[in-house]
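Internal ticket - ligand job 380, magnesium ion:
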Amino acid sequence: MIERTARLIEIRAALERAPVVALLGARQCGKTTLAREVASREGHWFDLESSTDRQALAAAPERTLSSLRGLVVLDEAQTMPELLPVLRVLADRPETPARFLLLGSASPDLIRGTSESLAGRVAFVHLGGFDIEEAGADVLQRLWQRGGFPRSFLAPDDATSYAWRQDFIETFLSRDAARFGITLPPAGLRRFWTMLAHLHGGVLNVAELGRAVSVDQKTAGRYVDILTGTFLVRRLPPWFENTGKRLVKAPKVYIRDGGLLHALLGLRNGSEVLSHPRFGASWEGFALEQVLRFADAERDAYFWGTHGGAELDLLIHRGGRRHGFEFKYSDAPKTTRSMRVALTDLRLDRLFVVYPGLRRFDLDDRITALPLSEVPRIQL
Ligand SMILES: Nc1ncnc2c1ncn2[C@@H]1O[C@H](COP(=O)(O)OP(=O)(O)OP(=O)(O)O)[C@@H](O)[C@H]1O
Ligand SMILES: [Mg+2]
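stdout (structure tokens):
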């Protein structure tokens, strides 16, 4: 077992401040395992994928749930969105005798009506695969290459890890997608997902992507929404600001887990990853996810790019300050012209060049080379 202490603290803190907490993350990232630790022996547990538990709740949801005290876990909550109005009533009871922990693998935006029904009453905790702190600083290469899904990361060898990821992709396409109410031909969705893997770290042009796999723009947009809403793909929005330059206006796209990226690209082990032409983009995505996790910056993160070629991989706004990030798979990162343009045009307070080395050092008075292994201690 890998300890996930920081996550446990995060979930417990959320349960202190809100009557309903939603622990959300991709399939198989470890939600149930973590919730079992939070709930330990006192919790009441409903697995909404089990027909007995479903029936128990479907018959008289309000009566069943209102009699419970302490922590109540609803696993696979996305499969019974009709419970949310009930939770809303229970959350509004003045004495709040129970707290509810919902586990789900689809974002509320994807399930019609759910984002409104609990507005203001629910605290969200996002769970990814293992992060660099949980995995440990000595295995960062393995975490990058296999990704953070527990079964993939902990597999006894690369072949087993790779096979697990291929099965994960297959299961998502053939079963999970349909369970989220998505009716798409699996082969089309696979082709689309693979195309996104080739675009990883690049700008997303939905119309063009749709044409490449022969679907219309609307369908292509819906596919991206599904993969984003199930936490498999990240869309990083562009930052707009009038600096007199023509700016890139489309979002950038990433496959969030490096292991899944490599599986989609057919890269079976570390040496195949390192000899792939896009390995730099792959590492960039890996480092980006870690920064977003430890800076808790899901909501205030952007990239910036001009048609003239200047760009910034990541811009985070925090407390009126602007922090820039560049990701470089290099032993000795250097400043570039593009960094200086970003620093001036965006009036950055600070620019971090995140790299795989071991030493933190200043490249300039506002530019710092930051080892990836120090990202968990980052304070913005
Ligand atoms: N901290 C951990 N250390 C070791 N293995 C883990 C850890 N967390 C999860 N796993 C393993 O990863 C697999 C998936 O975990 P779990 O069932 O908790 O994920 P989940 O997010 O609930 O998945 P699903 O969405 O499919 O229900 C399990 O085999 C579990 O034993
Ligand atoms: Mg589960």
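Auto-summary: The mean pLDDT is 93. The chain has two domains: 5-126, 132-377.
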